[in-house]
Structure formats: structure tokens, C-alpha cells
Amino acid sequence: MESFVNDNKVDQNEYDLILIGGGQSALACGFYLRRTQIKYLILDQQAQPGGAWIHGWDSLSLFSPAEFSSLPGFMFPKSENYYPVRDEVISYMDDYQSKYELPVKRSVQVIAVLKQEGGFTLKTSIGDFKAKTVISATGTWASPFVPVFKGLNQFRNEQLHSAYYKNALDFIGKKVLVIGGGNSGAQILAEVSKYTAVTWSTIGVPAFLPDDVDGRVLFDVATQKYNEQKAGNDQVQAKYNVRSIVMVPPVVDARARGVLNSKGEIERFTETSVVWKSGEEENFDVVIWCTGFKPALKHLEPLGILQPDGRVNTNGNSKVEGINGLWLVGYGDWTGFASATLIGVGRSARSTVEEVVDFLKL
């Protein structure tokens, strides 16, 4: 669904601000932009609302209950599920955009952002747009990461990243290797193991949170640590490691079935197998990479600001160093505390919009 405060803005293609990406980060910024005099537009590559959740696997869910998973101004509706599922999150984002009549233009790919006098030119799949300021809010889902392994280019059996995993039905009767010790690895292992033989590879022993610790608790713990550090206490230790695996119901079930066991690290690949650090060689039909993502910032390459790790230097929050008028929202703590979460992005969105208003003197 597209909604525009003023249809004439689309024809003009010139704005005070353009936001790139239409997921949760852009929506949160849009909520605060409504209260300003800024002429802005959200350009989203997706054909529908939902951000990265559109591409998530069928059984993907939040880590927090609905009441702790809201964007600013509009509560996530009650859910029949303790942890809202993918389709509920997509529906919530659709309703959010409609409720606040946010100006989103969909199915538009931003190919490149160029700096020019007085602002930026955005090269897109439907032509050029000009803006005095830009907020990039493209997230990470479009940039899946696969680590380097010796012999990987020789492996000729099936591979896919968790970004493209949908469900386990395609793997029935196949021998599957899941690589990655985070939440996606544990959840996909849990699901696929109900249908076929699965082996899990992680670096070190997987770390699991207590059963009663979910995203809500992790956010509270991380907030406490953040506030302590802001107050000058850099030695504070969080009670829980936010990188540990959340024991959502499918993972609890997998534990009960005895499948949450890692075989350890891989030494190298062959054409049809992996060689483990132990020296054992084992054949696999499918490898599922649950190894995370890098920031989806290819559109910023012309600005010459991308670092080797794919990040951009910021001021510790969302403002990009060395490029006036450019902000990043929602890529992780390096662009604002908890900014990659539904409940946390509002803080970064609000402060970023305040900075944009100040920059534009509006």
C-alpha cells in the first residue's frame, strides 16, 4: 500500500529528507517526522510493508511478547501467540504505515547516493531524486554473510543462507548441515531436525539463556548496562549475554528431543563433504548458513565511506562522520542503542529526526 501526504511531492522528486528503506526503522522515523515541517519521502525496495520480515522463514517469531514489541505511538495488538509470528509483525507494520499515513513509495531500488552541493542525488530504479538530507534505514537482511572456508568453492551440493530458508519440507530425506551458533541456527536446526537428519556446526559450545529470559528481559538488561555506561561506569557487566540463544518453544522442544548438540568446527570443504577439526570427513546434501548479516549499504559506496567490515563510521549514534546530512538508523548498537529492535528503534528514530530538524533549521 502506498500513502502520500501530498501526491505532488512525488512529481517534484525534491525533498528536505529521503529515507531509504521502509521497514521498522523508517516507520519509526516517520512517526516523529509527522510532527515536523520537513518535506520527506520513504523509498522502499519492497512491494509491501514488513521490511525484513517479508523474507523471514515461515515459522519465524519475535523474541518478546506483543506488549513489549511496539514501535512508537502504536501498540502491537494482542496475539494468540505468546511470541507474535512473522505474519502478525508484517500486518502490524502495514497498519502502522496506514494509521500515520506515512509517505512511502514502494518497489523502488536506490542504486546509489551521490553527494552534491546542497545535499544528495539518489539514483533509483525509477529515476533520480534529490534531497537535502538522507536517512539510510535498509537494515541487514539484503546482505547475508557467509564466512570463508578452505575448499568452499569446490562444494557442489546445495547451499542456502538463512535469509532464503522458508521451511523444512524441501529437505526431507536429505542430510543437512546447519552452520552458526546464534538464534537462527538453533531455530532452523530445531525445525529441520523434525523432518530429516541434521548436524550442527558452531564455533565453541553454543550458549543458551535460561528458559524464562526472552527479548523483553534482554532489552531491560541491556538498557541498564547502557545507562550505567553513559553515567561513566564502563566496568558494568550485563547479567545475560544478549548473543546467547533465546529458548523459544521450538528450541525448548529440540532440547527435549536431544538435538541441540554441536559437532564443533569445520576445517574445510570438499566437493560433497566437510572435514571436521577432528579429522573426520562427513558427506552432506545441504548446507544452511546461519551466519548472520552485514549492513546493506551498497548504495552508499559512491560516497567512499564503507569500511572493510561493511560498516560506516558514526558518532556513536546515527550521524555519519565526514558526510554532513547523512544518518543511519537501525543497523545495530553502532547506530544507536538497541536500534535494530522493534522496541528499541524509537529512541534512535526520535534523536535522529531531532538532529535532521536542527540541521535543516526547520
UniProtKB/TrEMBL annotation:
A single Gene Ontology MF term assigned here is: monooxygenase activity
Keywords attached to this Swiss-Prot or TrEMBL record, sorted alphabetically, are:
Oxidoreductase
Q: Which InterPro entries match?
A: Auxin_biosynth/cation_transpt, FAD/NAD-bd_sf
Supply the Pfam families for this chain: Pyr_redox_3
Q: Which Gene3D superfamilies match?
A: FAD/NAD(P)-binding domain
Tell me the leader sequence span: none
Keyword Amino-acid biosynthesis belongs to the record = no
Do you know which NCBIfam families this protein is assigned to? ArsO_flavin_mono
The name on file for this protein is Pyridine nucleotide-disulfide oxidoreductase
Q: Which organism is it from?
A: Myroides odoratimimus
